[in-house]
């Protein structure tokens, strides 16, 4: 590709682009090493990035994918608030307001404007999910909020440092309204340190190569990404493609599923995502804002296109997103939005995937766990007498199967998660007063298919020496992750307190539930959906699944048509082939597009979509 203008060759521009890509990675390492809360230094629930002086994404650490599309909206909110003329060397800007520019309150943005010869040329950005940001429940991620005011401290665009001077009044006000201020301030300083590294590296590049060459290289990089993304979209057949998927509920109206609907229009190298037929915003915290919607839409598109395309603002140019205000995907203030950032964005990705699956079947996956397994807890640590609060994805998720491979097992998170991981249980037990009794694979959690959905994880723990408050916001506990092209759904999730008297309190979407010493916390993530007819699964693969305990004998018989010797656990291949031939005519799974129906994978039967059905 030739540069539109400029004095340097393409080789030089590509070298500079690669150098720019290295900076957010260094920023990310600084943030990880200097942070306090394990959600940063173990889970890695943060992203670092560089934005141009206009607030356009140049490059990122490829951290949490649901953050990235929202970074530009955050920068725009700050620029609109202060104006370019009121930003100075030494400023450190802070923001978390979902209305506008943010995602949900726990995600705090730190931006440092970068200057070269007195001119604003870049922003260094670190966005991270704080383990506590106040609100009505510890961990700030409850499933039962009905207003943004219940979800924590809302920070408008503010100068945390003004020309290098700390705004002590703001800092003190913020820390007085969170439950574990030492962690909050420590993690904010880690974000600031990361941004200052980005600032230093950018200034070094501008000094070495000059502003003209740097600006030319950035223009070229964005044009290059745009050209490659348009080439990918142009391969898709022109037309309109529709699909709808559902959240279990919004946390308040627990008997009503919440619909996410999309109409995708492809015309040449342009693509439009219209969410106008999605449900209205909800009473509970299932709503999301434009930052969430744009991030999830871009993430879904990136999943279906060439992964080597550099991820910058140029990729966004062919994309139009339509979502009238007041919908669950673009809620109005003061709607609660905390789980929209994770659960609803996951469903947006599933919906876009379903809409495009028929035209790119080799690129799509069946549904992943579809939840960030958001668990929260808080109480007094009996070892120190100090209050603790955590938000952690305790149980590992699963990914859906692909056209040629099984899904990832016990992964760090669903597709929105990027590079997130789990907290090692030894670290968890040393940092918090809990004992983990079980942490492992869930047999039969992966959706049966020609290629099996990934297995999810289960975590069983109990508080030690104290009582605590627990809750969370988890989805796919009623309507399971869908299987695709004849594949069956992944096992639904389940989260509960098993009290010492034998009674059970469900906490799939809850906040403020009491867990006493002697009670058990049980967290089970949903499994990934299967891809293709399970009667076509290779018997060598199925045999290993049975031997490894991934698939039970019962499931192998029921879902895969296998005939198994109970003494040796060996599959009788001739008898299985005969069984499968008979079942093929009965099941007719080659005619099924989407499956979210069969028990025990679905807690309640939901739907099957045939190949010839349109889904709106």
Describe the protein's architecture and organization.
The chain has 616 residues and is an alpha+beta fold. It has 2 domains: 10-228, no CATH class; 370-616, no CATH class. Helices cover 29% and strands 22% of the residues. The protein has helices spanning 10-34, 38-41, 65-82, 168-175, 181-209, 211-235, 290-303, 343-356, 425-431, 539-548, 553-560, 573-587, and strands at residues 46-52, 57-60, 92-95, 107-116, 119-129, 158-162, 165-166, 239-247, 258-267, 270-274, 319-322, 374-380, 387-393, 434-441, 457-463, 468-473, 483-484, 494-498, 504-506, 509-515, 520-524, 592-595, 608-610. The protein has a 7-stranded antiparallel beta sheet. Strands 14-15-21-18-19 form a 5-stranded antiparallel beta sheet, with helices on one face. A hairpin with a 2-residue loop joins strand 4 and strand 5. Helix 1 crosses helix 6 (211-235), helix 3 (65-82) crosses helix 7 (290-303) and helix 7 crosses helix 8. The mean pLDDT is 94.
Task: Please sum up the structure shown.
By secondary structure, this protein is α+β, with helices and mostly antiparallel strands. It is built from twelve helices and 23 strands.
Portion of residues in beta strands equals 15-25%
User: What overall geometry do the principal axes of the alpha carbons give?
Assistant: globular
Percent of residues in helices: 25-40%
pLDDT < 50 runs, ≥5 residues? none
Tally of DSSP β-strands: 23
Mean residue pLDDT: 94
Report Rg: 24 Å
The helix/strand class is alpha+beta
> Mind describing the biggest β-sheet?
7 strands, antiparallel
**What's the N-to-C terminus distance?**
40 Å
Domain module tally: 2
Widest β-sheet, arrangement of strands: 2-1-5-4-3-6-7
Count, helices: 12
